[in-house]
Amino acid sequence: MSAITKTFFAAAALTALTAGNAIAADMTIVSWGGAYSASQQNAYHDPYMAANPGVNIINDDSSAEAVAKLRAMAEAGNTTWDVVDVVASDAMRLCDEGLAMEIDHDSQLAAAPDGTPASKDFGDLIVSECFIPQIVYSTTFGFRSDVAEWGGKEPDDICDVFDLDTFPGKRSLEKRPINNMEWALLCSGVAKADVYDVLETEEGQAKALAKLDTIKDQTIWWSAGADTPQLLADGEVVIGSTYNGRLFALIEEQKQPVKMLWDAQVFDLDGWIIPAGLSDERKKAAMDYIYFATDTQRLADQAKYISYGPARASSAPLVGKHAALGIDMAPHMPTDPNNAKNTFLYNYSWWADYRDDLDAKFQAWLAQ
Amino acid sequence: MSERAQPLLAADGTPLKRSIERSLRRQKIEAFLLVAPLLAFVLVTFVAPIADMLFRSVENQIVAQTLPATTDALKEWNPDVSALPDEAVFAALAVDMKAAVKSKTHTRLGSRLNYEKTGVASLFRKSGRRIKKWDLAGDAPFKDKFLDLDKKWGDPQLWQLLKLYSPVYTSGYFLNAVDLKKTPDGVEPRAESEQIYILLFQRTLFMSLAITLMCLLLGYPIAFLLSHLPMRTSNLLMILVLLPFWTSLLVRTSAWKVLLQQEGVINDVLVTIGLLGDSDRLQLINNQTGTIVAMTHILLPFMILPLYSVMRTIPPSYVRAAKSLGANDVTAFAKVYFPQSVPGIGAGSILVFILAIGYYITPELVGGTTGTFISNRIAYHISSSLNWGLAAALGSILLIAVLVLYYAYDRIVGIDNVKLG
Amino acid sequence: MLDGTNPFVRFRNVQKSYDGETLVVKNLNLDIEAGEFVTMLGPSGSGKTTCLMMLAGFETATHGEIELGGKPINNIPPHKRGIGMVFQNYALFPHMTVSENLAFPLKVRGMSAGDVQEKVKRALDMVQMRAFGDRKPAQLSGGQQQRIALARALVFEPELVLMDEPLGALDKQLREHMQYEIKHIHENLGVTVVYVTHDQSEALTMSNRIAVFDDGVIQQLDDPVTLYEKPENSFVAQFIGENNTLTGTVEALSKNVATVKLEAGDTVKALAVNTDGKGGRTSLSIRPERCVVSPKKVAGLSMLKGRIEELIYLGDHIRCRMNVAGNDEFIVKVPNTADQLGLEIGTETHVGWQTDDCRALDFKQV
After folding, report:
1. What ipTM does the predicted assembly reach?
2. Sign of the torsion formed by the C-alpha atoms of A34, A39, A45 and A50
């Protein structure tokens, strides 16, 4: 880091130091905002503060820029965040960059009620040494159930997204290669097991983009999770991908004429990391919170407020009814057997390698 | 002659020049003290970040810092002689990696090099876990051990890459930013499927110019009208012009979404009055049209304000004089009024253009795929890919482009022909 | 009009209102002959500039007609009227050089480049500014700008030139100099000039005829001598030159001589010009230079008692402020002659004038 920057960041850090963290008991928890943060407030923060009156949790809705901000804070030598909610791929990135703390899951997290150690309870979901899984969500499709041109047919296969003859109308897809490339290959006749091997080759990438080309001019590309629900509600698109929790809210809370297409839903993970470089005192406080917030019951509790599956195997049986709507949450979970007939698991380490390369190609393809 | 050489003296005998200097020094110090707080503020918040950005676009210390012995040893390696470096280099790498794993910097280097070559991130991450357990003294030789660990260590391209990026400074980011790449054989264009930045720069320039032109076309008549109304009325109407400033950018942009989308207000109206069939609704958003419309609206006040303040100072007698001299309305406007409003056009256009060229929220929300700016890619590299060097290079090019345009403007129109009021 | 032919410029029953409630110009009738120099004189807000702007075409008359060369011009746009105009602040185009400014009216008329050059040169010569053709207006002094503005208004040889307080921004000396210059140019070119000013000495110096405006009405239209010597109402008497006013009531009226009882009690005789007849109130107007100060009564003059309040020595004459019949602003200009009158402040003396020099006009409270 240059000397100029050091001076600059030192000045910025000084300001931040006097402004925030004056009281030791403040704990800044960074998350995504909206309904998601509300579910965490209800399931984790409120009970934790009730049990620990000395702790005051401050919410910061910066998860979307968490990686960049953590890097900037680390360069400034003053990390003001205590616990950060990120998607698994960001957790890996933060871990690679040395910006997140490594965790020993078994010794630092609660075991399941039956004594199963945390690492077994979370299982494969621990995709990085720095990552503490919290929920399983999926990126999947919703479609309008009132499209006249479809003549009563409803899409039930991922490839229906690419079928403009049977299901005409606009689509919405995320403005990045991840998931889209996999779906395109699946619908170009590539077997699920071979998708990433094919995607590693130039031909495979061209094949995926060629498939996406068939719907390119009928697609609106989104970059915020709220876009697709809004586009579906406005009738701007007839079918679109987004996070399953957003679709749940659209269908069950806003009662829009939209249905779920669970086929080939892509599982993804969201969880906690603790920034590297915290003082021992703050690290201890953060770990105490994490220990509390990721136990079996707490994870199950969160599902009362939002339709994302708890990351612990032991939490699944405890998932109950929605706190406000009173409906059974289990059938709305991406992990429910009825929904998970055909699922796709996002390959984190593969994307960590290919993300830069494919993103450049994907954006170049989009821009043309 | 001797008198000429004699300096003029003040009353107390000191040379007059020195005496003047002394009296001016005090004034200078006072002037400096007055601007010092702002100067400090600008230095810290503006000059330093820009300097840092310019620096980041060429800075590449991470390779040499993380693998000091390896980069040193690689200097001896000639790729033309042997496809792979010899044992000395691998041994140096083992030492470096062991230290890097201990300080957990190897993964960071991996993500850095992954920008240049796909797969290096996971190679460094995976290798790190194994190398941690190596015994530097006992496990030699390391070449086979590395090849055994992952066959990618036997890829000559990887080593060429390491050698290429060993220097502390690199032109790599700038080359990437103009769709070129650094190879052992020199600079080469990127594969066509990866070329994006030149296109985006062109698009950014084109759209910024289009937005500036739209603002001028829409703003000029408004400013003209406002400047010819009585002060009371024009002040009232000026509030309407400034009204957009009172609502948040996001709200305004979202409002455009509601208006412009295919099921939106404008299309609905056109379909209702029968100008359009229900099936061929216009695509007004998520493309360049959307970006230009929304940004023209947002930036319009920046055009109107300087135009208005310049037009206010043009006395009506000029146009009257032109008419009394025989010029019709069009000639009087074109030959007399318009030239005097040029400083306002210059100021407004520069303001709008420079604001437009760096915009990113609005294009992100309404630009779709064809209506996005280079700044959207900069934002992506800052917050998502963490490729800050590339972001800095892109930003530097944008900065240079603006300065070049500014210089061109100065040469063509003259910067003293810019008036903000 | 006098000889039965059409005048060059004619205002017929012209009215102008901006707000629909008050008239800025009330029923204006004015004829201007070709070649005349007519000045519209009046205080600000009297309607004179509005009249000029209506003639130029920048304002439209609310009612009535304006004719130019016998043709109504109400519906002709300004640029087709062929009227030259000099503006208050010159309105020289700042982005053009002096030559370009002068060439402008010629170019818009489609004149050939050679002719343009020739005429511009001649116009510059006329105002003795030949060396300044390549300068920008901002590089000229006020007087130079004024000359260029004049040259520009004349370069396309209009038959009528309007000038809207063109000398207002100049200092006194330059202003007087320019007055003569404009007067000479007018005489040499024979162009018709309508000139607007609020400066009465400027009007007296330059004009053939002066139209005195007040309250949207022409109070009097006459040549400078008549206007000064024979004002027809109190406003004109007071506005043009210096004037002493005494108020009273007409007691008797015989032929054109009125006997007026002043408010202070004295009775004087005056020329009945504009009175309401016997019993009506009137304002008497007497020019300061027509008064005589004398310790004794002089036969044949109307004499009143007065007390000297202030004396100002002005070289060629002495300005003597007196209290006469209750008016302590009564001014007498005493010629600086060899036989000093021995004037002293506080002296009770007499002031007198010829009956014909005392004009009984409409009553106006001072």
Report:
1. 0.86
2. positive
